[in-house]
Amino acid sequence: MEQSFSGRIAVITGAASGIGHTVAHHFAERGGRIVGVDLNDRVGEIVATLPGSGHVGLVKNLADPAAASEAIDEAVAAVGVPHILVNSAGLALLDPAVSVAPDRWQLTMDVNLSGTFYMAQAAGRVMLEAGYGRIINLASQAAVIGLDQHAAYCASKAAVIGLTHVLSLEWARSGVTVNAVSPTVVETPLGKAAWAGEKGEKAKADIPVGRFAQPEEVAALIAFLAGDDAAMITGSNYLIDGGFTTV
Predict the structure, then answer these.
(1) pLDDT value, residue 62
(2) DSSP label at residue 1
(3) Does residue 238 carry a catalytic annotation?
(4) How confident is residue 1, by pLDDT bands cut at 50, 70 and 90?
(5) Which of 30, 43, 133, 164 is 20 to 30 A from 225, alpha carbon to alpha carbon?
(6) Residues 6 or more apart in contact with residue 95 via CB below 8 angstroms
(7) Annotated active-site residue in 118, 132, 153, 238
(8) Which residue ranges make up each domain of the chain?
(9) Structure pTM?
């Protein structure tokens, strides 16, 4: 039986594009009500096109520590206490380690790590009071292996997994689970563009299954972790990498 999210409110960061948008569509198709949080000022228009109705778009810059509390407060006021938070917003600024500029390092940490923490913290406060919550953080295979020119990105995503462990430990007895999902390259429009041509073919050849991940595959795992059947799963990091990190 297909999982239903009827009556469930899902806050999804990065919902205007990429994995976040696919996740939003996946939940909406199954009856969920979406609060999309994104830097893109068209996020309201974009989530309005999702299946169902009553979806809300919030324009927020998650590099600002105040943005997360604002987003959750506005979500609660508009549609109610969220049942689900998916932290999908992120960026990858690639540089050789010896030449990572301080501003690029800090921005990566502000969005990928601090943005994830502050959203989880703000959502956690209302979820803990409600006695129920599902938080899924997007990490990356780069959280568990080293990748060339990914010093800031790898560090930020490894920290997301560490954060996931702590939050899961603190919140488990209050009915709030916290897990991480770590994909390899995902064939979003940006992913396809970034890994086109010879570079992409070589990367695919290094993955045992011989291909990159599809956004829908990532969304399906996130949806499972967001459902009631996953109530016993918390503090885990799930790799979606076609066996790459086992090689």
Answers:
(1) 97
(2) -
(3) no
(4) low
(5) 43
(6) 101, 104, 149, 151, 152
(7) 153
(8) 9-186+215-240
(9) 0.96
* Helix (H/G/I), strand (E/B), else coil: 36: strand
Q: What is the reported pLDDT for 241?
A: 94
Q: Can you tell me whether residue 202 is helix, strand or coil?
A: helix
Q: Which residues of 126-165 are buried (b: 16+ CB within 10 A; e: fewer)?
A: bbbeeebbbbbbbbbbbbbbeeeebbbbbbbbbbbbebbe
Cα torsion angle, 174, 175, 181, 187, sign: negative
Helix axes 151-171, 116-130, angle to 10 degrees: 10
CATH of 9-186+215-240, one of 1.10.10.10, 3.40.50.720, 3.30.70.20, 2.40.420.20: 3.40.50.720
Structure tokens at 210: 């011989």
Block residue for tokens 């954060």: 163
Half-sphere CA count of 107, side-chain side, radius 13 A:
10
